[in-house]
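Record type: monomer structure entry
Structure origin: computed from sequence
Chain ID: A
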Amino acid sequence: MSIFTENLDGLKKLIEEDTKRKDSYTSIAKNIVFSGNLNRKFNELLTDAEKNSDDPESWNRLGAFAYQKGKFPKALLYFHRAIKHSPNNYDYWNNLGLTYYKLKRISQAIKALKKAIVLDESRSGARFNLCNCYMELKNLGQQKVCWEKILELEPTNSYAIFGLAMVYDKKSEHHKAIKYYEEFLGNEPEFFITWHNLGWNYDEIGNVDKAIECYEKCLAIHPKNNRALINLAHAYVIKERYMDIVMYYTKFVEYYP
């Protein structure tokens, strides 16, 4: 009899003795079974990898499983084993780079991801992960290069369009930020924070009417967005719309006392 079976038998007895606690004991039982299944799956993958130690995909599967369960140091070890047996595999280098990123080992992540890109320049996955590394480093110049390259490969990729808009936003290149935010909103009109960001950039170039329009669209989707509320109130100050100033300041204080 396994430890999982023993525990489940014990829990069954507790449930029978105290039905009021049935839900909590059932939940515990499910967690034990789930944990047991995970351990069993890991052991199966490990056995397969050790049995087929020259098969890189066996190590990659084991690494992917460890990664999914948040076991990043183990995942790192297994991805390295996969690369040892297949050093020119794009996916293995990309997986390794992503794992280094999760461990906050950014310079090593960048090195691994660049290797993946060299192996296959036509795929964008490693470039996305590389962008995330440069975002972690707050390197706007390299972020811009990454997003632009992704857009060369996938001209309508919304995530890259938004990323490039954010780069120009942070660089205070407002007209370019506006261009890419508007392009993004053409595909993703319900993404409320983009309406706020677009409004703020219009504010910065002095187009208060467009800023107000964008802030209002943001609040139509997310009525309690604090930045849109306060910035809209400020915009109404410029327009001398006093009743609107009072209304939005009142809402801000009501939501964020």
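Annotation 1: Residues 1-6, 31-36 have pLDDT under 50 and may be disordered.
Annotation 2: The two ends are 59 Å apart (CA to CA).
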